Description:
Blueprint: H1 2-25, H2 27-59
Helix pairs in contact: 1-2
Amino acid sequence: MLALRILSLPLAMAAFTVLYVVSTKAPEAVEVTNILVWLLLPIILIAKLGQNLFNRKQEN
Length: 60
């Protein structure tokens, strides 16, 4: 657990750096990915909500 806390900041900084470099080198790819993520987000959330409701009905 301590290692996770120690490594979380460098990992976050590395992820931000990679995203920044990719967005400056290939903005079209980032734009397409962004559009796809926003289109998939409602589908994922609806599926998750349906799964939670289904599990709740099974418990009762």
